[in-house]
Amino acid sequence: MTRHPRRSFAALAPLALAAAGAFSGTAHAQSTVKLYGLLDMSAGTFQNAGGTKLTRAESGNFSTSFIGFSGNEDLGGGLSTLFAIESFLRMDTGQSGRVAVDVSPRTDVFWARAANVGLSGSFGTARLGRNTTPLFISTLIFNPFGDSFGFSPSIRQYYTAALLGDSGWSNSLRYDSPKFGGASVTLLGSLGENSSKSVGKNIGGNVLYFGGPFAATFAYQDVKNDLDFRFSTALPAGFVDQKTWQIGASYDLGMAKLYGQYGDVKTTAAANTEAKISQVGVSAPISVGSFLASYGQAKYTGATVGTSKTTTIGYDYNLSKRTDVYAVYLNDKFTALTSGNTFALGLRHTF
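User: That's the sequence. What structure does it adopt?
Assistant: Structure tokens below.
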């Protein structure tokens, strides 16, 4: 199986000021514009199950590097408008996107992380454009390695192996409800925008609950088009749809936080495939950092048969509120393939 994956900030200040002026609005309307991002680089030896061991310096293994602009304007009466445009980037080469062309024949559009505008009020928040999927949000919250495409067993087994579709959907409308007690709901729909009836609409949603030390989620999505599938040349022959559901929970004991996930990915095509994916993990504060460990397993039946097993352990040390360094070891196995071992040291900075 295959997996995927400056100018100084001071120099960018004039751009931020210019953007602020462009979106400033009338005198009675309060508006803000922010420039922000995350930069992540790691170096080490990287190897997937059955793959070649490579010594590399890579961008975005712990968190995908990106730069973004967002803003909002107070319209009065509790209503505000908002926007976000965010672009992935590869710090190792200076290119945009997450995956190089030599890894995947399809590359990211420039604003692939987010490109949306919306309204927010007592009803919740509605965004139209390119939006992050609820399933991706649930997946990253309930595992100790978050949104790490390089090191999180859950993210790797869902988003670089089992799932069709991306972590963000284009041509979409997303709705985030207000909180009811500790619960909230997110709904997302994406149009196929194609005259062919074989290109359908994608739908998804999740429920999140946070109550003291306990948190939980249920997420679901049904993918019927591949407009956002960046890591393959085509859908499976005879593709109809792919239905995915996932449950997740965490409990904070103080001395450690426990994580668990279980989900099912079922693809209906000329040859059906099903993946049952589970994950358990823990994070524990040590000094000014955290010890992280996670084990994930994906069992495939149908057109693909085999079991993926991924174990990751690491330590993330905070140099400041915005900068951390980390060390990670990952062991990757798949039925009948040689085991892959990865060891990496990295630096991550947010601004």
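The chain is about 10% helix and 55% strand.
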